[in-house]
Amino acid sequence: MRDTSAPKGPFVLHDGPPYANGSLHFGHAINKVFLKDMICRRKLLEGFEVSYLPGWDCHGLPIELKAVSKDAQITDAIEIRKKAKQLALNVIDEHKTCFRNWQILGDWDHPYLTFHSNYITNQLKAFHTLLESGLVFRSHSPVYWTPSGRTALAEAELQYNDKHVSQSVFVKFNITSVPDILHKYSDISALIWTTTPWTLPANQAIAYSPNIDYCVVIINQLCDENLLVAKDLIPSLEEEFKSKIVIKEVINGSNLKGITYKNPISLNDEILPFLESQYVTTTKGTGLVHTAPNHGVDDYKLITKNNIPLKECIVDEKGCFVSTSNPLLDN
């Protein structure tokens, strides 16, 4: 593919590598043959000096999990890495054979492999360059986490169980201060709905929308307390609770600014805020959103935007509650 007399100069195709954890499938054929190889051959015919260096991504949790799938008792990190590397090498040999049989042009004798020391060295040098340039900083961010592997996951690594049903709950939070427009109601609670009830001890705010109309209501067959919910969601709430809902007053969401409340699961009498948010909708729930910044990206962004200190995470690496969240939940 190299022709030093190529009149149009060099053309380099940087390969986004396949993952070395399983056999090839039709997606690989589309990627390698119908996209990359066709581009390289076209450029070669046009007079370019074509360089295509294939490679493999050899690191990651999927490789490790597959490597120990037949021996789940292995827990030693060094042994797991050895088995993962051997699995990757076997897969790479299999892939090479297939790619060559597909007649894909490339330097198959000298591919780049992400576990090679020279590749890792270049990564560290690149990171050092970023560090010296002041582009590296330490902060917080919610991440996907696997308790079994005790590691963070990329979104692309998530596997959902289609049969899983999230257990949702409705929870009332006692409001401690209300705007003047609601002063006539001495006792009122905000009603929230969440599909992650285990995050309730981590609640730090309730999100609302200034563009939604909210109501003070009583749910007849549920309780005689004053509850705050979004007006547009009353029909769905009536269906959910199998009860008629009586509307006592309607106010615009812009009037909810400054409201505070208490979390019924909190260990202390901490006063928490209502926060304005653009992601609150009336498609489901109550129009008031439970906000646990340690366990949701939108929640985290809302808290940091309002300069509210982030609390300690309520679960450990094993996915168990820690005693600081509530002694009754420890482990």
UniProtKB/TrEMBL annotation:
Any one Pfam family match given in the protein's UniProt record, by short name: tRNA-synt_1
Example of a GO MF term: ATP binding
Residue ranges of domain Aminoacyl-tRNA synthetase class Ia in the record: 5-174
BP GO annotations: isoleucyl-tRNA aminoacylation; mitochondrial translation
Name of the top EC class for this enzyme: ligase
InterPro entries: aa-tRNA-synth_Ia, Ile-tRNA-ligase, Ile-tRNA_ligase, Rossmann-like_a/b/a_fold, Val/Leu/Ile-tRNA-synth_edit
EC number, as in UniProt: 6.1.1.5
Entry keyword set: Aminoacyl-tRNA synthetase, ATP-binding, Ligase, Nucleotide-binding, Protein biosynthesis
Gene Ontology, cellular component aspect: mitochondrion
Family assignment from sequence similarity: Belongs to the class-I aminoacyl-tRNA synthetase family.
Name by which UniProt lists this protein: isoleucine--tRNA ligase
Organism: Oppiella nova
